[in-house]
Design a protein that fits this description.
This protein has 262 residues and is mostly helical. It contains 10 helices and 2 strands. Strand 1 and strand 2 form a beta hairpin. Helix 1 (2-20) runs antiparallel to helix 2 (24-33) and helix 6 (141-155) runs antiparallel to helix 7 (158-166). The longest helix has 30 residues, at 173-202. The two termini are 24 Å apart.
């Protein structure tokens, strides 16, 4: 059963996130967590996520606008490191409140609530008619990189903020997705250096739990297929469709963060 669930989630979400630029890690991690301890699920998801981004880089990276990648991804990568380091200091912040559903308790955390508000604002920029023609000037691109990298380093959801910002830079759909993917790989590597070295040096043995290695391979291959299908559908998708997908996923993710479910 775990092979079916992991492969189906990875395939479907990877295809969908080819256009949105975020969501694979958010939705795949709970699928792994159904069968393995949370630390194993986080590590497995990180491996699949990076491998899938590298595959997408092969598929569409050639369309990336490198001028924007440099202006956005370099500040984002640096800010992500500071955000990830700050996570150690703010992890002890007390929840604003908590509630229970059945025997499960959920906590509403200050940082996640703040990021959720940012996501709602960006979502409204996609949905409100008067904001359809809103574009971000090139000189502000590094600011977007710093904000998405920093808050993403804290919460792990920087893909959502990155997409919400870059979708308003005036790029066409191929250039937009190529730029998002290339930026994602750069920022992922910097973030995983901070997260990964400590985790894998301390918890290396947990990666030998059960059939996790096989499941990682299955999940990665399924994600590759999903990304490949997404690439084939790109010609039929308009930029407006991408913006709408981004807005809907932003609102869903914001609701999950604000409510403590994610």
């Amino acid at each position: 059963m775990e092979y079916v669930i992991i492969s189906v989630v990875a395939l479907l979400v990877s295809g969908m996130t080819f256009f949105s630029g975020f969501g694979l890690g958010t939705l795949l991690m709970p699928a792994f967590a159904l069968f393995f301890p949370i630390e194993v699920a986080v590590a497995a998801t990180a491996i699949v996520h990076l491998a899938n981004n590298l595959f997408k880089l092969i598929l569409i990276g050639k369309y990336a606008v490198m001028k924007i990648v440099v202006k956005f991804a370099v500040p984002a990568a640096i800010a992500a490191v500071f955000g990830a380091l700050l996570l150690n200091y703010i992890s002890d912040l007390q929840p604003i409140t908590s509630y229970t559903i059945g025997d499960k308790e959920f906590f509403i955390m200050p940082v996640k609530l703040m990021i959720a508000v940012l996501m709602v604002i960006f979502a409204l920029l996609e949905l409100l008619p008067f904001a359809n023609n809103f574009q971000i000037k090139e000189k502000y691109i590094p600011v977007g990189g710093i904000l998405s990298g920093f808050f993403g380093g804290i919460s792990g959801h920087q893909g959502a903020l990155r997409t919400a910002f870059l979708v308003h830079t005036g790029l066409d759909k191929k250039a937009l997705i190529g730029t998002m993917v290339t930026s994602s790989v750069i920022v992922d590597i910097s973030r995983l250096i901070v997260y990964g070295i400590t985790f894998f040096s301390v918890h290396f043995t947990v990666m030998q739990t059960g059939n996790i290695s096989t499941l990682i391979i299955v999940g990665t291959l399924a994600a590759f297929i999903g990304a490949f299908i997404g690439r084939q559908l790109l010609e039929k998708v308009t930029l407006k469709h991408i913006q709408l997908t981004v807005a809907i996923m932003l609102l869903i993710l914001a609701a999950g963060l604000a409510s403590g479910i994610i």
